[in-house]
Design goal:
Radius of gyration: 33 Å
Order of helices and strands: HHHHHHHH
Number of strands: 0
Length: 187
């Protein structure tokens, strides 16, 4: 079924969309309302035009619904990718900040060692001072959402809570080609 959907999405469905969304087809379809009124006595003509208009209405609404579902699925995929990327970036920033703090502690210890060496050379005693940031800061707890932000299913729970699922399981059945950049491994 996946291959059939891909075939339809790639080679079949774009043609009706191009036909139905062409400006001249839209104008011609709207202009058919006038002959319906003028030739109301000719039943065969009225039935034929009415059938065409009904078919066009169903086709247009089906195409709009299909592409709305595809757009919603793509938007959800993009939102999930952006959320994962933001979480990765945040984790990276936290790790970089931790490295900076570790480096500052190391430099503080080196300065304290240098002070002690200089003091010993002069015959003085120097008391070591504590690092300015205390024992250690838990950077993950500094995030507004706390440690929950770093749980593995955080993105899925947040998406389930914040992305409306108007079309239910029908949206999950839509197959899509990969979003640009996803095939290259970017997220």
């Amino acid at each position: 079924m996946k291959r059939v959907n891909e075939l339809l999405d790639r080679f079949v469905l774009p043609w009706p969309v191009r036909f139905l969304t062409h400006r001249f087809i839209i104008l011609a379809t709207i202009s058919l309302l006038v002959p319906l009124i003028v030739f109301a006595q000719h039943t065969d003509f009225v039935l034929a035009v009415n059938s065409y208009l009904n078919t066009m209405g169903v086709a247009v609404s089906s195409v709009v619904l299909l592409y709305a579902m595809i757009a919603e699925v793509r938007d959800k995929q993009i939102a999930e990718m952006q959320e994962r990327r933001a979480q990765e970036d945040h984790t990276h920033v936290v790790e970089m900040h931790q490295l900076v703090l570790d480096n500052m502690r190391f430099q503080h210890e080196e300065i304290q060692d240098l002070k002690q060496i200089l003091a010993q050379m002069r015959g003085l005693t120097v008391q070591r001072t504590a690092p300015p940031h205390g024992p250690g800061v838990d950077l993950r707890s500094l995030h507004p959402k706390g440690k929950r932000r770093f749980e593995t299913d955080f993105v899925q729970r947040r998406m389930a809570r914040n992305v409306p699922h108007k079309l239910g399981d029908a949206v999950a059945a839509v197959t899509l080609p990969p979003v640009s950049g996803e095939a290259a491994g970017d997220s």
